[in-house]
Amino acid sequence: MPFPKDFFWGGATAANQYEGGWNEGGRGPALTDMTTAGTATAPRYVTYRLPDGTVKPFSSFESKPEGVKAAVAEDYYYPNQQAVDFYHRYKEDIALLAEMGFKMFRMSISWSRIFPKGIETAPNKEGLEFYHKVFRELKKYGIEPLVTISHYDTPLYIEEELGGWANREVIGLFDRYTETLFREYKGEVKYWLTFNEINITMMMADFVPNYPKAAMARGLQILHNEFVASARAVKRAHAIDPNYKVGCMIAGTCKYPLTCDPKDMLETQKKWQRCNDYCGDVMVRGGYPAFAKRLWKEYDVELAWGPEDGKDLAEGKVDFYTFSYYSTSCVTTHADVVMDGAGNLSLGAKNPYLGYSDWGWAMDPDGLRYYLNEVYNRYQIPMMVVENGLGAHDVLESDGKVHDPYRIEYMRGHIKAMEEAIEDGVDLIAYTPWGCIDLISASTGEMKKRYGFVYVDLDNEGRGTRDRYRKDSFYWYKKVIASNGADLD
Ligand code: BGP
């Protein structure tokens, strides 16, 4: 039996896509609260109030007038505001997770629930209390929380008034936020992740055709500030409680050369280094990799370093490596190949050996084994797969059932791949598939792109009871957990 006996089987969520209660309990706004729904082909928009008082939607690729502020307008639907209402249904949800036998639950804390603008000197007590209640409920069932500190929902005030993470001042605000969390939840939480998919900047350059040089340069500085903030958080966590374990979280970008042309191989290596190793090396090894210099030169970047940054990075190495893994793509330098193989924040050539999901993402269990091996052999610290799964159309039958054999098949393949990776020697300690209870899609804002073992009655326009229904995969995953991965039938 390759899965260790204390392996953490579980599932993952994020406050902005799951929690709701956006204007309750003293929570402040985040940009996700002002973001509309899109589709696989139509972008999501943020609505802004223009100087003449009207509200207009802008996608993140459009430039908007200087100084305009995000605003909520009546004629738009904002799916993340209520999301699927974990805020009021946490007891019911946690009972469902416990019924499946969960050992670990990945969730995130909404920063603006603790510090509504991000700049306050004292935290919002009601916000702190909400997460105490969640942690207590998890403890009741012996479920270990895995808490992401920042998952795509920086307080809006920081984004708009302070210029977001490009401003070094935000490191100090994050210091205060993490200090509060580590002191407040001592004894209730052991495992923390600092930034979700911190490598998103690196992915953008790869994902968005002709990504502007200036945007990339800004992104690299943002990343540097986040690396420092993360390293300081790791140091702080260890000082507050030596039992704390803090991990990085990388969008796992597994790429293959499309052909055996050495140029394709080199290009693949370059993308792999930039998308994965750039962030992994800083967070795990405590400093930038050798190839970083060439990257900075390419983008004319002179990173602004604080006097203590080098020391902080070196001393704030993470305890474990976590990543999201959904799909793989192929890299080629041959200009005649169409780049129509999409994936999580990635684009590439289609792989003729693989099947594709309803949203066009490649389904590739072997890639997971490959990625685990590559990363483990580079760093040799414990690893967790903290996101994985199949976003698919599910149908709630009139008898309240949801038959999702496609999801079971996808997961079976990926669990077998993890099993192989463990046999290969990888120290894999957790598997928390994404959106264990259906939630709002990050990229499209849709509800119908479902990942869960539990169906939530809600549609793309916000209609529905938000009631929960067990899918076939619910019973299957329960068996998987009960047998510690031995029974995958
Ligand atoms: C990752 C995010 C998650 C989640 C997931 C699935 O990038 O960390 O927040 O949403 O992708 O993506 P999507 O919701 O776009 O299908």
Written overview of the protein:
The protein is α/β, with parallel strands linked by helices and 489 residues long. The chain has two domains: 8-30 and 80-482, Glycosidases (TIM Barrel, Alpha-Beta Barrel); 38-76, no CATH class. It contains 15 helices and 19 strands. It has helices at 15-18, 79-82, 86-100, 111-114, 125-140, 156-161, 169-184, 200-207, 213-240, 262-285, 292-298, 309-315, 365-379, 405-424, 472-482; strands at 8-12, 46-49, 55-58, 69-70, 104-108, 144-150, 191-195, 245-251, 254-257, 320-324, 328-331, 341-343, 346-348, 355-356, 362-363, 383-387, 428-431, 454-456, 468-470. The strands form six sheets. An eight-stranded parallel β-barrel has the order 1-5-6-7-8-10-16-17, surrounded by four helices. Strands 3-2-4 form a three-stranded antiparallel β-sheet, with no helix packed on it. A hairpin with a 2-residue loop joins β12 and β13. α8 (200-207) packs antiparallel against α9 (213-240) and α8 (200-207) runs antiparallel to α10 (262-285). The model has no long low-confidence stretch (mean pLDDT 96). Residues 14, 17, 196-197, 251, 324, 344, 387, 391, 434, 441-444, 449 line the site of 6-O-phosphono-beta-D-galactopyranose.
